[in-house]
Amino acid sequence: MNELFTRGVEQIVGLDELEKAIKSGRKLRIKLGVDPTRPDIHLGHAVLLRQLRQFQDMGHTVIFLIGDYTSKIGDPSGKSKTRPILTDDEIMFNAQTYLDQVGRILDIKKVEIRRNSEWLSKLSFADLLKLAANFSVAQLIERDDFNNRLKSGQELSLHELLYPLMQAYDSVALEADVEFGGNDQLFNIMAGRSLQKKMGQRPQVVFIAELLVGTDGVKKMSKSLDNYIAITDEPVDMYGKVMSLPDSLIAPYYKLCTEIPMGVIDELVKTLAEGANPRDSKASLAREIVRIYHGEAVALKAEAAWNNQFREGGRPEDIEIFPINDAHMSLVDLLVETGMAASKGEARRLIDQGGVKLDDEVQKPESEPVFTTGDILQVGKRRYLKLKVK
RNA sequence: GCCGGGUUACUCAAGUGGCCAACGAGGGCUGACUGUAAAUCAGCUGACUUUCGUCUUCGGGGGUUCAAAUCCCUCACCCGGCACCA
Questions:
Q1: So what's the pLDDT on residue A161?
Q2: Residues by CB within 7 Å of nucleic chain B, which ones?
């Protein structure tokens, strides 16, 4: 219970209010807003979603707010550029994909799903002006991204300036008690808190989740940086991506991505510091994470497959079969035809560099193999094809 | 509408008439090493060609020149500023 307010939490504004409310047994309305721009949910999002799940299990109501209206504007959060405006179809598609994935973590049947077009589309211009009167320009441009853009002479549209206002109004419309978000959402969520106050509502508690560092070990996990582990990743990929993490991320990932008790994690960190092999703890981390999203049996299987392929240098179990017509075709052509190389030039390069194997035998530029059914073509460390001569 | 700046390969970014298939960085790929798909090191990273070499590429189109990413004209888009309109 105590961990609920600390583990994976960067900041809570209104912690006292939250504790009191929970003690009183009141059912809380917890808002999570999403701009349905990119559909892949990854472990970084999961930190927050899993926290929500805990609240949900305590009987509180999670409100999943799809920013269908606001996404037509484009949230400026963390963006140096104005986002493109999405079409209705794209929004609907992304939102559905999002919901499907969220269902792996939250009990989606108990989630209240709302769209902010429900109320935002009904606001008149006069309503908007009234709302806008609650904020000063100085307050809005205080925000970092806005400020930076102004200073560096970049474009900042008026409609973007209004974004925090709309998100704040969402909280009013939903009568949210708590709003969740990453730290890039701090400003917007705070705006909601103060607008609620001004409009005579109980101000929402601001719950900011900790950021998860991506697989590169440096930047925050995000799809656009391609350093993410999606919760829909194939088990073996998921396992492998965790194994490829820099050792320094073992503890943070245990803390943010699993429910292993903190005491156990601290113990683990200690043994690592004393020289234990990080691989072993990383392997159990990988297994645990795969287990959460795919189940125990699959996790064990993924581990076995990964060990076989990468630790023991074996082949993966299921190799795709590629049919070829001519057993005497050149290796270069074969590589291009199978898609292992994008061009003949690239195929030659791969061969020159010793990256192409046929049945475990490194192929030299001058070799002219004759292919037979069942031959295993390998490019690099992890691309395999089984040939089938017609 | 006017003035100025910009548009270069996956991304950022150098290059201002021939030495440019185009510096550099990131990314990607391959190899070595490793507990690892990490870190580090090395090589590669437009297409065709065994090699010599040939061809296409620097926002689009047109032109000048023996020769253009580089000069001129024109069009499109982006960024500033100014003006016009309120």
A1: 77
A2: A 153-155, 216-217, 226, 236-237, 239-241, 243-247, 277-279, 282, 306, 310-311, 336, 342-346, 348-350, 353-355, 379-383
